[in-house]
Write a structure and sequence with these properties.
The protein is built from 14 helices and 17 strands. It is an alpha/beta fold and 522 residues long. The protein has 2 domains: 233 residues, Response regulator (Rossmann fold); 175 residues, Response regulator (Rossmann fold), CATH 3.40.50. The strands form 3 sheets. It has an 8-stranded mixed sheet with strand order 9-8-10-11-12-15-16-17, sandwiched between helices. Strand 8, helix 6 and strand 9 form a beta-alpha-beta unit. The radius of gyration is 36 Å and the shape is elongated. The N and C termini lie far apart (150 Å). Pfam families: ANF_receptor. It is found in: Membrane. This is Receptor ligand binding region domain-containing protein. Its main location: membrane.
């Protein structure tokens, strides 16, 4: 159970201002109204994301508060009932309750809504629009806010977006000329991502990729090795390019069975599609059991498609140590030894720095930063560089776009390494020369999506010749033979006639003799 030190408790709301000691100055006061989940079981929860806000606020206020430009603070608005994704949408009235009850007492205050819930609930964006207030969706993302007419004051800064997965999927299929692919997905709901990816795949194929044939194969809950074996036999009858999504245990189980079926050769492509940070851990071959050696032999045939971030290792480690101290001191959460602060924590940190940067420029340039729509427009097509820990890019629709990578398994080091990536800065896929893709084929080129003779061996290029084909070929050969015989006969007759004349060369034509009559004589 988490232990929180509350500075102020108002039932049923928790108004949190712990861990923030700033020297207030006269002038603009920026207040982040943060609504979210308290259960640390979710990566975007307040106990895990909150330290990012706190560390960044200290740094921002040391600069802008001291020079009397503005000062920032955050207020958490949440009830005990908001414990999971299903609860966030049910208690949005707590945001409006706080807004109408508490915000009227601060005329120089600029309020910004921040949602650490699940998805982009339309209600959250509607509140921002109605109040003309910048609304930042910092939890898990969807496509709702991309309609700028309906949600003109909302932007999404979630570190996990789904759109890059579909962009990468399309580009990989185009680059390697894959048109028949399979998607094998976990239905256990241990992770929500496989089913979310199912929705994305089916919608994308229906709307954007009619030339790609997608075969769907759900995997039941807790499948036995026999079920996996039978499923693979069905899958490999219709596809050689297999995208996978599921728990690390399931992905390993599939690869082990594929190896046993001798289906991890260069003829097949296995791609696991994952989120960067999952509550159940990363995809790995190692589970300290009898299948570790088999899995280690199978994993070099497995590629990994996943969002990726550019971080300086030392700076990232130092910052996350700071986050961990804040989490324990002000949120009562102590990280286990094998767990680090997530991208949501780092994202919260960068969000505050980005808001401060845009707000400072708005003040200098004289923009009406109290108008939420005007303020939101400054985030569109905007890149903020946070130095050694990376940065954020928000596209023209108000959605953060993150680099996505295709990684290959390093057999020596036994982990995945980036080999190819796509980002918003370049349209085409970018190869990483230091880590070439290993296709395990004879020519080290990506395999085709179908066998040369087809999955049933009946392709016309190498299948059995039909009776119609034989009859047609025979008729054509007969006609050709007749034409040849007729041509030879005509040539022989022509040559015979020519030689009959040549044999009488000595005979003169009467006209050539020039016989004279008496009338011509003189």
């Amino acid at each position: 159970m988490l232990c929180y030190s509350l500075n102020l408790f108002i039932h049923p709301l928790i108004i949190f201002t712990v861990g923030q000691i700033v020297n207030w100055v006269e002038g603009l006061e920026v207040v982040l109204l943060v609504y979210g989940i308290w259960s640390p079981g979710l990566l975007q929860s307040i106990p895990l994301s909150g330290p990012g806000f706190d560390v960044a606020l200290e740094e921002v206020n040391s600069v802008y508060s001291n020079n009397k430009t503005f000062q920032m603070r955050r207020v958490y608005i949440s009830s005990k009932e908001v414990a999971g994704c299903g609860d966030t949408g049910a208690y949005f009235d707590q945001i409006s309750d706080y807004y109408y009850r508490s915000t009227g007492n601060c005329s120089p205050c600029l309020y910004i809504l921040v949602n650490l819930g699940c998805g982009d609930p339309p209600m959250f964006a509607q509140l921002g629009r109605e109040w003309s207030m910048l609304a930042i969706s910092a939890g898990t993302a969807s496509f709702n806010i991309r309609n700028r007419l309906l949600y003109p004051t909302t932007i999404s800064t979630c570190p996990f977006q789904y759109r890059p997965y579909m962009v990468m999927f399309r580009k990989l299929c185009d680059l390697f000329n894959w048109r028949t692919v399979a998607y094998v997905y976990d239905t256990s709901r241990t992770l929500p991502f496989p089913l979310q990816l199912y929705d994305l795949f089916t919608s994308f194929i229906r709307l954007n990729a009619t030339d790609i044939r997608l075969q769907l194969f759900p995997i039941p809950v807790a499948p036995s090795d026999v079920i996996i074996d039978e499923s693979l036999r069905k899958i490999l009858q219709v596809s050689r390019i297999i995208f996978l999504s599921g728990t690390p245990v399931l992905i390993r189980q599939i690869m082990v069975e594929a190896f046993k079926q001798n289906k991890t050769s260069g003829e097949y492509v296995w791609i696991t599609v994952d989120l960067p940070e999952q509550a159940v851990g990363p995809v790995t071959y190692y589970r300290n059991d009898s299948n570790d050696e088999i899995a280690l032999q199978a994993f070099p045939s497995l590629l990994q498609l996943m969002l990726c971030y550019d971080r300086n290792a030392d700076a990232d480690r130092q910052l996350k140590s700071h986050f961990k101290r804040k989490a324990e001191a002000f949120y009562g959460y102590k990280y286990p030894e094998n767990r680090q602060p997530t991208e949501f924590t780092t994202s919260s940190y960068i969000i505050v720095k980005m808001i401060a940067d845009i707000l400072n420029r708005s003040i200098v340039q004289g923009f009406d930063y109290f108008d939420g729509q005007i303020l939101a427009q400054h985030f569109l097509n905007y890149s903020y560089d946070a130095g050694p820990i990376g940065g954020i890019y928000v596209d023209s629709y108000g959605e953060r776009q993150t680099k996505i990578c295709l990684s290959t398994f390093n057999e020596t080091e036994r982990f995945f390494q980036r080999a190819l990536f796509h980002s918003h800065t370049q349209e085409s896929l970018q190869l990483i020369p230091e880590v070439p893709l290993q296709w395990r084929t004879a020519d080290n080129r990506p395999p085709p999506d179908t066998p040369f003779c087809g999955f049933r061996g009946d392709d016309q290029r190498c299948g059995p010749i039909s009776i119609n084909t034989i009859v047609g070929a025979s008729a054509s050969a007969g006609l050709l033979l007749m034409a040849c015989v007729l041509g030879l006969s005509m040539r022989c007759l022509h040559r015979s006639d020519t030689f009959s004349h040549l044999d009488q060369w000595w005979l003169l034509n009467e006209s050539c003799l020039g016989v004279r009559t008496h009338s011509n004589m003189w």
